[in-house]
Design a protein that fits this description.
The complex is a heterodimer. By secondary structure, chain A is an alpha+beta fold. Chain A contains 14 helices and 18 strands. A 9-stranded mixed sheet of chain A has the order 2-6-7-10-1-11-12-13-14. Chain A has a 3-stranded antiparallel sheet with strand order 5-4-15, with no helix packed on it. In chain A, α11 crosses α14. Chain A starts with a strand and ends with a helix. Chain B is of the alpha/beta class. Chain B has an 11-stranded mixed sheet, with helices on both faces. In chain B, α9 crosses α12. Chain B starts with a helix and ends in a 14-residue tail after the last helix. Classes of the chains: A alpha+beta, B alpha/beta. At the A-B interface, β15 of A face α9 and α10 of B. Bound molecules: zinc ion (ZN). Zinc ion binds next to loops of chain A. Zinc ion (ZN) binds next to loops of chain A.
C-alpha cells in the first residue's frame, strides 16, 4: 500500500495573503475587499508575513528553499473561487525535497507551497451560501511522496507533522484539510478534502478495505477521485476522472518573483527529536516525554530548564504534577524552586503549587509535607485498618478509600500516595 | 512647448467654459460615438477622459463589454487617483474594443468613428480616447495598450499616443486583458502635455506589485534604425510617406541604419498566444453573479449558470477565450504558451541590442486607415497581422510613441518610435523636436480658448 498526502493548513497571519483584510472575522462577508472578491481592476499584493511563515514551515520540514519563489494561476470554475482561478504554486514553490522522520522511517516531502483559500460554501437544502471572509486566507499546502504504508504510519506522520507545524507557529486547532492519495493496486485513488484527523484515518481505513476487496475479487481499481462521507464512514466516487482535470496553469502575471535569500527564517524545534535525545541521554521514557512536549512549547522549555538542575525523572514528575493541577504555567525560577523542594523529599500541596505559579513565597510548614511523613501515615493506616488491607486485592474501592483518607489530610500529589501505598501493601501481602 | 496644460490652467477662468463644451461634445458624441458616458458636472480643470477599462470610482466601467454592464468600481485606478483634482477634471469614459480585443475599434456596440472622416475606423482598441483627443482642444486621455492599442488609434486619428515602459505606471484599477503586457499610457495633442501627465501618474504603487520606481532616462539617439522585416508588408503610399518623414528627420540631424531581425515575424503568433493565454484567465472571473451583468435565475447548476452568463461575451472575446484556453492546456502548453514566452525573451534581447545606441522607427500601421466596411471584412488572422509593427515593442515592454507625421488625402498617418526600457523621456524629447518643424492638423477644436 502507498499513501501520499496533500495537507492544507492556514498560516498564522493577521491579514490575508494578497490584501489587507483581517483573517479574523466572525460575521460572514465582513472581512472582504475588491482584491479578495476578485473585482475587475483589483490586483493581488503579497503578504510578507505569509511568505515568511510559509518559509518557516518549509525549512522545519527540511525542504530546500527555492532562491526565487513565484506563483501560478490554476483555472477552474467553482462558485467559491472569485476569480475563477486560484493563485497557487507548483514549480517555483516555497520549498521542495524535504522530509519528516517518524519512528521507523523517513516520509519524504515533495513540496511546500503557498496558496489562497477559496470562499467558504455553506450548503442549505435548497441553496448554498458563500462566505468570502475565507477567500484569500493564506494556506500552506504540504505534499508528501507516497511513502506512508500503514495506518500506524499515517497516524504517526500526521501527529509528527502537526507537532512541527505547532512549533512553526501554525494554529493546529484550525481545521486541517487533506487530500488522501491511496493505492493498493496499480492505480491511484484520490480522496479529496478530508477534514480533521479522525476522518482522515477513517477514510484511509475504509479505502484500504474497499480496494482490498476489489483486489481479492480480481477486479480492477479505477483511477479516480472520491469523496469521504463522515456519516456513513465511507468514500464515494466523485465521477470525475483524474485525467479530466485540466487546470491550464499559467504564470501569475500580476505578481513578481520573490527572492527568499534575505529573509531570516527562524529555526523550528522538532519536539520529537528533542524528546528522543533527552530520553536516551537521561534514561527517560520516550513516550512520556513526547506526550508532554509535542504540542506544548512551555513544557518543552521547562524540561530543558529542569534537566540542567535536577534529576530527570523528578523533572518529568514535576511537570505532570503541574498538569494535574490544571495548567503548567510557571516561571523558570519558580519551577527551579519547585524542583529543589522535591529534591529535598517534600511533597507540595495545591496551595504550594499555586504559590509557585503566582511567584509567591511557599509556606513550608503549612503547604508541604515530607515523603517520610506520608510513609509514616501510610504505615499507620495499614496497621489500624486491617479490614481494608485484606480487601484491597479484590476490591479497588478499599484501595481508593485509603488514598482518599490520606489525600484529605495532606492534599498532595495523589500519584505519590497511590504508588507508595501499593508498594507498602505489596510488602504486607 | 508653450501653451501646454499649465498655461491653460493659468489663463482659463472656466466661466461658462464647461457649459459650452458639454453641449458641443454631446453633439459630436452622438455623431462619432466617442464616450460611453460624459460627466456633465465638471466646472474646472483640464478635461481628461479615461478608457473604459480603467476604473474610475463610482463611475460605470465596463471595458465596453456587456459582461460588465453596470459594474461600478468602488475605487479609482492608481493612475486616476494620482491626477490632482484641482488640475484635472474627469470628462467621461471612452469606448473601446471589448476588453481591448481589436485593431480597428469596431468590437463594441455603437463603435467610435474617425473624426477626420466618419466613414473610416478610428483604430483600436483605445478608440474613443483617440477620438476624444482629436476633437478636444485642451484635453488628455488616460488610455491603455497591450499590443498596440495606443499607437494604432493614435495614428489613425492623428494624435500622439505614448505607451510607457511596462511597469512604470501602476495597473491597479485596470480591467486586465493580459497582465504581463498591459500598460497604461497617455494620449494627447503635444509631447509636453503627455510628459506633464506621465510625471503625475508614474511610479511604484503598493497595490501593483509589477510597478516599479525606476529612474527614467533621456538618452537621446541620433541613429534611427529601420528593421527591414517590419517594412515588408507596408502599403506603398504609407512607405513613401514614411520616406518623406525620414527625410525631414535627416534634415534635423538624425541618420538612418537598416537592421534585420529574421524571427521578428514570429512575434505576431507568439504575442497572440501569450496574450490570449493570459486573457482567458483574466476573463474567467466573469460568471454573471458578483458584478457587472447579473443572471438572477439560480434554478440551474453552477456550470449551466455561468455558461449561460458567458454567452454575453462578444465574438472576439469568445474567440480569444477559446484559443487562450487551448494554448495553455497541458497537452499543448509546451508547444504554444511556453514557446511564446521563450520567443518573448529572444525578442527583448534582440531589440535591446539595437536600442543601445539607436531608436527604432517605422510607420505605426502598415496600412492606410480602412473604412468601417473594409475593416468589417477583415478575417481575424489578417486583422492580427495588421499589428505586426505595433506588437514588437509592446511584447517586449518597450516604451514607444506614435506621432502624426503626414496626411494622405486628408487622413492622418502616424510614425512610431521605440526606445530602450526606461528611456521614456528620450522619446518625448524626440517628439518635441519633431513638433518644432511639423504642424499637427485637427478637424475639431472643442473647448478652444
Ligand atoms: Zn480583501
Amino acid at each position: 500500500m502507498k499513501i501520499g498526502l496533500e495537507v492544507h493548513v492556514a498560516l498564522p497571519t493577521e491579514t490575508k495573503l494578497f490584501c489587507s483584510c483581517s483573517t479574523n472575522a466572525d460575521e460572514p462577508n465582513t472581512s472582504i475587499c475588491p482584491v479578495c472578491l476578485g473585482f475587475p481592476g483589483s490586483k493581488p499584493m503579497l503578504n510578507d508575513a505569509a511568505l515568511k511563515s510559509a518559509l518557516t514551515v518549509a525549512k522545519a520540514l527540511h525542504c530546500k528553499i527555492n532562491d526565487n519563489t513565484y506563483f501560478l494561476r490554476k483555472v477552474y470554475f467553482y462558485p467559491d473561487l472569485p476569480k475563477s482561478y486560484q493563485i497557487t504554486q507548483l514549480d517555483g514553490a516555497i520549498g521542495h525535497g524535504g522530509y519528516v522522520d517518524i519512528s521507523k522511517k523517513r516520509i519524504r516531502i515533495r513540496r511546500v507551497q503557498l496558496e489562497e483559500d477559496p470562499a467558504k460554501i455553506i450548503r442549505e437544502d435548497e441553496y448554498s451560501l458563500l462566505d468570502f471572509n475565507r477567500s484569500g486566507i493564506p494556506l500552506n499546502e504540504i505534499v508528501t511522496e507516497p511513502d506512508i504504508e500503514t495506518e500506524e504510519e499515517l497516524r504517526e506522520f500526521v501527529n509528527e507533522l502537526r507537532s512541527i507545524l505547532y512549533y512553526a507557529g501554525v494554529d493546529i486547532n484550525k481545521e486541517m484539510k487533506t487530500d488522501l492519495n491511496i493505492s493498493l493496486g496499480e492505480e491511484r485513488v484520490e480522496i479529496k478534502n478530508v477534514t480533521g484527523i479522525k476522518n482522515l484515518v477513517d477514510a484511509e481505513r475504509f479505502e484500504v478495505k474497499r480496494q482490498g476487496e476489489l483486489i481479492s475479487r480480481n477486479q480492477k481499481i479505477p483511477k479516480e477521485t472520491r469523496a469521504y462521507n463522515s456519516e456513513t464512514l465511507s468514500t464515494i466516487s466523485s465521477r470525475e476522472k483524474e485525467s479530466d482535470e485540466e487546470y491550464g496553469f499559467i504564470y501569475e502575471p500580476d505578481l513578481a518573483s520573490y527572492p527568499t535569500g534575505d529573509i531570516v527564517i527562524p529555526e523550528v524545534v522538532i519536539a520529537s527529536d528533542v524528546a528522543r535525545q533527552l530520553s536516551s541521554k537521561y534514561g527517560l521514557n520516550e513516550a512520556t516525554v513526547k506526550e508532554l512536549v509535542m504540542f506544548d512549547r512551555h513544557a518543552l522549555g521547562l524540561v530543558q530548564y529542569g534537566l540542567k538542575r535536577s534529576n530527570a525523572n523528578r523533572v518529568i514528575n514535576a511537570i505532570e504534577l503541574l498538569k494535574r493541577h490544571g495548567n503548567i504555567t510557571i516561571s523558570d525560577e519558580s519551577f527551579g524552586k519547585m524542583l529543589s523542594y522535591l529534591d529535598k523529599g517534600l511533597l507540595l500541596n495545591e496551595d504550594a503549587i499555586k504559590s509557585l505559579q503566582e511567584n509567591r513565597q511557599v509556606e513550608i510548614e503549612k503547604n508541604t509535607v515530607s515523603t517520610k511523613e506520608i510513609d509514616k501515615a501510610i504505615l499507620g493506616i495499614v496497621a489500624q485498618r486491617q479490614d481494608l488491607v485484606r480487601e484491597y486485592k479484590t476490591n479497588s474501592k478499599a484501595f481508593n478509600f485509603i488514598v482518599g483518607m490520606l489525600l484529605k489530610k495532606y492534599k498532595v500529589n495523589p500519584k505519590y500516595i497511590s504508588e507508595r501505598l501499593a508498594e507498602v501493601l505489596k510488602d504486607k501481602a | 512647448m508653450k501653451g501646454g496644460i499649465e498655461e491653460f490652467l493659468k489663463t482659463e477662468k472656466f466661466e461658462g467654459y464647461y457649459e459650452e463644451l458639454i453641449v458641443e461634445l454631446e453633439k459630436l458624441n452622438s455623431k462619432l460615438h466617442i464616450f460611453s458616458n460624459i460627466n456633465k458636472g465638471l466646472s474646472t480643470g483640464l478635461p481628461f477622459s479615461v478608457k473604459d477599462n480603467i476604473c474610475v470610482k463610482d463611475v460605470v466601467s465596463t471595458a465596453s463589454s456587456q459582461m460588465l454592464n453596470g459594474y461600478t468600481p468602488p475605487f479609482n485606478a492608481t493612475a486616476i487617483e494620482r491626477l490632482p483634482k484641482e488640475e484635472f477634471g474627469f470628462i467621461g469614459k471612452t469606448k473601446m474594443d471589448e476588453f481591448g480585443f481589436g485593431t480597428f475599434g469596431i468590437n463594441c456596440k455603437d463603435h467610435p468613428l474617425n473624426p477626420f472622416d466618419d466613414r473610416y475606423v478610428t483604430g483600436g482598441s483605445s478608440a474613443g480616447s483617440a477620438v476624444a483627443t482629436a476633437v478636444l482642444k485642451h484635453h488628455i486621455s488616460i488610455a491603455e495598450s497591450t499590443g498596440g492599442s495606443i499607437s494604432c488609434p493614435a495614428a489613425f486619428c492623428g494624435i500622439i499616443g505614448f505607451t510607457p515602459t511596462y511597469g512604470l505606471v501602476s495597473r491597479y484599477g485596470l480591467i486586465d486583458y493580459a497582465s504581463s503586457l498591459d500598460k497604461i499610457g497617455v494620449m494627447g495633442r503635444s509631447s509636453a502635455d503627455i510628459r506633464y501627465v506621465f510625471d503625475k501618474i508614474k511610479g511604484s504603487d503598493r497595490y501593483d506589485t509589477t510597478c516599479v520606481d525606476h529612474p527614467i532616462s533621456k538618452e537621446s539617439r541620433k541613429k534611427l534604425v529601420i528593421i527591414d522585416q517590419l517594412m515588408a508588408g507596408v502599403d506603398e503610399e504609407i512607405a513613401s510617406s514614411f520616406d518623406r518623414t525620414i527625410g525631414k528627420l535627416q534634415n534635423i540631424g538624425y541618420y538612418v541604419e537598416h537592421k534585420s531581425i529574421p524571427f521578428i515575424e514570429k512575434t505576431i503568433p507568439a504575442y497572440y498566444i501569450a496574450s490570449m493565454a493570459e486573457a482567458s484567465t483574466n476573463l474567467a472571473k466573469f460568471t454573471g453573479f458578483k458584478y457587472g451583468l447579473k443572471i438572477n435565475d439560480f434554478s440551474k447548476g453552477y456550470n449551466d449558470f455561468f455558461t449561460e452568463a458567458r454567452n454575453n461575451f462578444g465574438l472576439e472575446a469568445k474567440r480569444r477565450i477559446v484559443l487562450g484556453t487551448f494554448v495553455r492546456s497541458s497537452s499543448v502548453k509546451s508547444k504554444y504558451y511556453e514557446k511564446a514566452l521563450r520567443l518573448r525573451h529572444m525578442m527583448i534581447n534582440a531589440l535591446g541590442v539595437i536600442l543601445k545606441d539607436g531608436f527604432i522607427i517605422s510607420p505605426t500601421m502598415p496600412i492606410k486607415t480602412p473604412t468601417v466596411k473594409e475593416a468589417e471584412d477583415f478575417d481575424p488572422v489578417k486583422e492580427y497581422s495588421i499589428d505586426s509593427i505595433t506588437v514588437p515593442p509592446n511584447f517586449a515592454g518597450l516604451p514607444h510613441i506614435s506621432f502624426p507625421s503626414d496626411y494622405i488625402k486628408g487622413m492622418p498617418v502616424g510614425t512610431q518610435i521605440v526606445a530602450n526600457h526606461f528611456n521614456d523621456y528620450a522619446l518625448l524629447d524626440f517628439v518635441e523636436r519633431w513638433e518644432s518643424q511639423f504642424e499637427y492638423r485637427f478637424k475639431y477644436n472643442v473647448g478652444a480658448l
